[in-house]
Amino acid sequence: MIKPSGVRPKILVFSSVYLPMIGGAELAIREIAKRLCDRYDFVLFTARMSRSFPARERMDGVDVRRLGFGFSFDKYLVPFFSAVAVRRELPGAALLWGMMASYATIGAYFIKRRNPAIPFLLTLQEGDPEAYLFHGRWGLMGWWFRRIMPSADRIQAISGYLKRIAEKAGASADRIDVIPNGVDIERFGGANPDARKEIFDRFGFGPNAKIVITASRLVPKNGVDVLIRALARAPKNHREHLAVAGTGFEEAKLRALAKELGIEKRVHFLGDLDHDELARWYSVAHAFARPSRSEGLGSAFLEAMAAGLPAIGTAVGGIPDFLTHNETGVLVNVDDSDDLAYQIRHCFYDADFRARVAAAGRALAHERYSWDRIANKMNGIFYRLIGA
């Protein structure tokens, strides 16, 4: 990496939420900053969201400033809070970095308008379908997209799909870099030899059990309902199981669906898992599946691939950037539980196919999606914008 000389440039980061609330966007900030904090000072402005979260703390090379009263509605107020809180940090600020075209980035947008000499980098991580991004919330989403895209000096899109969204919203192609999210290769690339016995004993899996795992928020776009219906295609007393890592507002509905289909004993809701526990599950599962209805990129796919699982997904959003059918993974039709059921069992019972696809996916994740590689590319963007 190129290291700026002299005083470290200050990067002001704007994210609607941050750790311990975690998704792809929050993970990206942490992993990139952790690797570049010896080159840049990162100051992050975010909504406080909970009174249990400290208003200010240092985390993995990021000076976190949580703004608001400690309630969920703080995210709606963070544009106004950040406009005030950022004043002390503006002297010497080298870059404004907005994470997603979300509430916090509204604050960055107006700060940019008042301080046009400070470069503005926008990262697109949105996982919603195009129709929602341009027409959702009574058209306000599209209005905001068309306002913010031309104002950014540089746009980092995590997939080709989001690059096309940015261009459609008015950004010129020569100002957009496609740099995906990465994978913690050390965490997900290692073996967990003791995990199988512990997990199989804890959940009462038989020695010949087959497990498909998904990791996602339990919301409609991630298609967990389709996955449950696919599992129901197997006999009711069969050895096939589904492990669901994640929480969300659809959980009660999904539990009811599993019960309605008579497979509630074979669908295991694990709740939110930290990355170490998720890696343990990946080490004992036989396939990963997320039949997404929309997807910005799909970091969970890459983590599962790095762990050596065959990944099953749909050809939506950024998934085709890394998942090639029958090569680095398996593609299924959207909302097609029969197709999904067939492909899951193909991965379960064709050992040669499973091993070949898993090996290709693992090699791709290790070669192209390590966080070290991604941070190096982001450093290039920072360096060019800052001109240090």
Structural class: alpha/beta
CA-based gyration radius: 21 Å
Secondary-structure element string: EHEEEHEHEHHEHEHHEHEHEHEHEEHHH
Segments where pLDDT lies below 50 for 5+ residues?
Answer: 1-5
Let me know the CATH homologous superfamily of the largest domain.
Glycogen Phosphorylase B
Summarize the SSE layout with pairings.
Elements (H helix, E strand, L loop, with lengths): L9 E5 L9 H13 L4 E7 L8 E4 L2 E6 L6 H12 L7 E7 L3 H12 L5 E5 L5 H6 L4 H9 L5 E4 L2 H9 L7 E3 L6 H4 L6 H9 L6 E6 L8 H8 L8 E6 L5 H10 L6 E5 L3 H10 L2 E3 L9 H8 L4 E4 L15 E3 L4 H13 L1 H18 L2 H16 L2
Parallel strand pairs: 1-2, 1-5, 2-4, 5-6, 6-7, 7-8, 9-10, 9-12, 10-11, 12-13, 13-14
Antiparallel strand pairs: 3-4
Helix pairs in contact: 1-15, 2-3, 9-13, 12-14
Can you summarize this structure?
Helices cover 40% and strands 18% of the residues. It is built from 15 helices and 14 strands. It has helices at 24-36, 74-85, 103-114, 130-135, 140-148, 160-168, 185-188, 195-203, 224-231, 251-260, 275-284, 299-306, 337-349, 351-368, 371-386; strands spanning 10-14, 41-47, 56-59, 62-67, 93-99, 120-124, 154-157, 176-178, 210-215, 240-245, 267-271, 287-289, 311-314, 330-332.
